[in-house]
Amino acid sequence: MATPRVRFAPAPTGYLHVGSARSALFNWLFARRYGGQFILRIEDTDESKKSQEFVDAIVEPLRWLGLDWDEGPFFQSERRVAHDLAIQQLVDSGQAYFCDLSAADSQRLSTEAGLRAGYHGWSRDRGVADAAGVVVRFRVPDEGSTVVDDLIRGRVKIAHDTLDDFVIRRGDGSPTFFLANAVDDHDMEITHVIRGEDLLNTTPKVKLLWEALGYGRLPQYAHLPLLVNEQRKKLAKRRDSVALSDFVSQGFLPEAMLNYLALLGWGAPDEVEIRPLGEIVELFSLEAVNKSSAFFDLVKLAHVNQVYIKALSAAEFAQTVASWLPAHYDLAVVEALAPELQQRISTLSEAASWLDWIFVDEIDDYDSKAWQRAMVKGRAAPTVLVELGEVLSGVPFDDPEHLRSAVLGVGDRLSEQIGARVMSQAPLRVALTGSGAGIPLWEAMTHLGKEKTLLRIAAAHKRLSG
RNA sequence: GCCCCGUUCGUCUAGCGGCCUAGGACGCCACCCUCUCAAGGUGGUAGCACGGGUUCAAAUCCCGUACGGGGUACCA
């Protein structure tokens, strides 16, 4: 195919959410797949929406994801002259006309005439003159229908009598979405429009304008299935927590986010789900995109993220996780323990809780269940702690293997003495970490150090007997 | 209401008329491994919305119904 030109055209409404990110990704994939251009256009026809803050809210997440654009960002608000010209052209050719009715008035007229809600062309032949507050409406043909061949959905046909004479210029003179969309896509020579299904119904209107303006060949349209919440409603900023920035701060990796997003509505022919972006680019095609909406599943996202976290080298992991850790954490220790952490977390923000015990001065809070199980139910615990204190004070702390055999040795000896299985590791874990669950002890103990280890064993013993 | 789109395990999907007693992934359950929690391994659970056609043959094609969603703004 001729090199495609696609665009991601979000409205600057606060922040970028995962649904928009998915649209951006599919556009980007398509452009990269066929060696075309990916264009960023900020859809700020409503002047109030233009501010640096809002622009950053779009640009920063795209950068984080690594979805680089070849042209732009362009601003719709800066293309006002072209829009005005197009509106003038439509008015001059009689395909659009002025209307001084308010929305409320046209609603009332419809009701009085016993027609369905909406606008019925009341001002078509009233000869209204342009003035402040007057809108321009497009004259939709009475007869016939408009057909759009969607790359994903197939042929979509809308009868003209279900369309009203929609507004293309507001009372304040600004162009509406339909008009700006047609003009900008034409001027930017967009070949493929890839966006959410919620925009499918607007396509015939844009096509009508396109033809009325004599623009020639229409871009190819591809409407992606919507991303939905657990109620199967389209992801919305107001009710769903879907800001991309939130996922960034929770510790999702951009590669994982992209990979997961690519899986919603699309799948590789070989069914391999988790794979490098480069491979996804190679395999991507719009024809393989399916039609039904997809639930944005945090559980699966977490799984994908964990796979990516596990794939990091220890050094990469330590470097990446650093900003989620308190400043007093020793990164060299984090790197040494990286593999154990990587298989236990699915987001980077979870890392600290697995490591905390190594970097605090003392354990002041023991998990009560773990204490009960290891210290109270394990009747030998007091003896184990005493023995552990004695044995470990004579062992060098530089070799995990020495620590292991010393600790397990205590358990074996006591087992023989008592004639029942004695676990030495469980009480040790609770004494050192305050918790019943955690990473393997031996390597971690070399970083905790002998002094803290012995103090914590003593503290636990004191608490047990006191 | 009207218009448009959709419907395969709980979820994401494979399937584009016979290879399907429907495959994979996530989740869940069990077992193995194991001080713990994980990770890993093995096995299991669960689905073609319904009704008519077409055809020798339908998850796959057609029609209808039901259900879900989207749109219906001087938002985009």
Write up this protein:
With 466 residues, this protein is mainly alpha-helical. It has four domains: 5-74 and 177-223, HUPs (Rossmann fold); 86-169, Alpha-Beta Complex (Glutamyl-tRNA Synthetase, domain 3); 314-351, no CATH class; 360-465, Arc Repressor Mutant, subunit A (Orthogonal Bundle), CATH 1.10.10. It has helices at residues 18-33, 52-65, 80-92, 103-112, 177-187, 203-212, 244-250, 254-263, 277-283, 298-310, 314-321, 331-336, 338-342, 351-359, 368-376, 381-393, 400-418, 425-433, 441-448, 450-465, and strands spanning 5-8, 37-42, 71-75, 96-99, 135-138, 145-150, 154-159, 167-169, 192-196, 220-224, 227-228, 294-295. The chain has a three-stranded parallel β-sheet. The protein has a three-stranded antiparallel β-sheet with strand order 4-5-8. It starts with a strand and ends with a helix. It binds one RNA strand of 76 nucleotides through strand 7, helix 5, strand 12, helix 10 and helix 13.
Describe what is shown at a glance.
It contains 20 helices and 12 strands. The protein is mainly α and 466 residues long. The protein has a 3-stranded parallel sheet with strand order 1-2-3.
Query: Total helix count?
Result: 20
Q: Approximately what portion of the residues adopt beta-strand conformation?
A: 5-15%
Question: Radius of gyration over alpha carbons?
Answer: 32 Å
Based on Cα principal axes, name the global outline: elongated
Architecture blueprint of SSEs:
Blueprint: E1 5-8, H1 18-33, E2 37-42, H2 52-65, E3 71-75, H3 80-92, E4 96-99, H4 103-112, E5 135-138, E6 145-150, E7 154-159, E8 167-169, H5 177-187, E9 192-196, H6 203-212, E10 220-224, E11 227-228, H7 244-250, H8 254-263, H9 277-283, E12 294-295, H10 298-310, H11 314-321, H12 331-336, H13 338-342, H14 351-359, H15 368-376, H16 381-393, H17 400-418, H18 425-433, H19 441-448, H20 450-465
Parallel strand pairs: 1-2, 2-3, 9-10, 11-12
Antiparallel strand pairs: 4-5, 5-8, 6-7
Helix pairs in contact: 1-9, 3-5, 5-6, 8-10, 16-17, 16-20, 17-19, 18-20
The structure holds one RNA strand of 76 nucleotides.
